[in-house]
Amino acid sequence: MIKPEIFVRNCELPDCPNRRGLWRNLLEPQQGYSLEGRWYCSPECFELAAATAIQKLIGGMGRPQAKPHRVPLGLLMLSRGLVDDEQLKKALRAQKDSGGGRVGEWLRHIGAVSEEQVTQILGLQYSAAVFPLERSKRYLECAHMVPFHLLEATGMIPVHHLPASRHLYVAFGDRISHSALFALEKMLMCRTEPCLGVKSLIQRAIEELRKLPHDTEILAAGITDPQEMAGTILDHAENQAAADVRISGFDGYIWARVFFPPAHTDLIFQAPKTPRAAPPKPSK
Ligand SMILES: [Zn+2]
Predict the structure, then answer these.
(1) Domain holding 134: CATH number?
(2) In the β-sheet with 191-196, what is the strand arrangement from edge to edge?
(3) 29 alpha carbon to ligand 1 midpoint, in Å?
C-alpha cells in the first residue's frame, strides 16, 4: 500500500508556523527551499534554519580545539641529526626574544636547515606525506573546488582529486587545519587526505591560482551577523532558484554554496570574533 505521507513534504523547521494539513499539502504543493537537502516551506523558515546553522558554526569556532600530542619539531630535528644542540638553543632563544614565530622558521633563519627539511620533519610530526608540488601541477585541475579566498586565508590547496573514490588530497604549508578538512568533507561530500607542501611552493601555487577567474565566489566580509548572513544566502537562493544550499565554515569563515546545477555560487562571510575565555591565572 502506498502511504499518502510520501507525497507530503513537511517543513523541517521544528517550530514552523505554517504547519499544513495533508489535504492542503496535496492540493497546493509548495515550492519551498532546500538547505543541506532538508526542505523548508517558506523563506522565513529557510532563513531561520540557515541562521541557526551559522550560529552553531560560529559557536564551534570559539571553542578551543584539543591539540593532538606531537613531538616538538626541534626535538625531531635534533634526534635526526639535522641540527645540533647549539643551533636548537639559538633558534629557541630567537623565538623567545621575538615573542613568536615557529621553531622551524627560526632554524631556517639561522641557516641550520632548508625549507624542504622543515617540510619533511613537519610531515613526520603530522604523519602525513609531503606532496611534490615542484613536479605536479594537478592542483590546477582541482583547486577550483574550494573558493580561492578560503585557500588564500588558510594557506592550503587541494592538490589531487580522485573522483571515483571521492578522495581529495589537500596540502598545507605548515599547520594542518582539521577544521578546514572537516568543512571540505561536509561541503564537497568527499573524503579528505591531508598532506604537507613546501610553504614557498604552496605560496607560489596560490599566486598562480589568484590569476584564474573567481567569478563564482562572492566575498561578503562586511556582513557578520548570522541573521544577515542567512538573509543574503536566501537572496541568492531565490535569485538563482537554487536546488540546494550547503553551509560550512572554519578558521573564522562561513562558507555557503548555493547550488543551481550544473553551476553554483559561493558566498564567503567573516565570522564575528568570539571572545575567548581568559586563561586561568596561576594560584599564588
Ligand atoms: Zn516552515
Answers:
(1) 3.30.300.160
(2) 156-162, 167-172, 191-196
(3) 13
Residue 280 maps to a domain: no
From ligand 1's centre to the CA of 247, what distance in Å? 19
Q: What is the dihedral of CA 64, 68, 71, 77, to 10 degrees?
A: -80
CB atoms within 10 A of CB 273: 11
218-271 pLDDT, tens digit per residue, is 999 899 999 999 999 999 999 999 999 999 999 999 999 999 999 999 999 999
d(CA 18, ligand 1 centre) in Å: 5
Domain boundary among 84, 108, 126: 126
Domain with 166, as residue range(s), is 129-214
Q: How far is the CA of 112 from the centre of ligand 1 (A)?
A: 63
Total domains present in the chain: 3
Whether 200 shows a pLDDT value over 60: the answer reads yes
Do 247 and 222 lie in one domain? The reply is yes
CA of 190 to the centre of ligand 1 (A): 30
Measuring CA to CA, which residue among 146, 236, 212, 213 is closest to residue 183? 146
Please report which helix (H) or strand (E) contains residue 114, including its range.
Answer: none
CA dihedral 190, 56, 253, 67 (to 10 degrees): -80
- Assess contact for 4 and 22: CB atoms under 8 A: yes
Query: In the predicted model, what is the mean pLDDT of residues 107-130?
Result: 92
* Residues 146, 206 within the same domain: yes
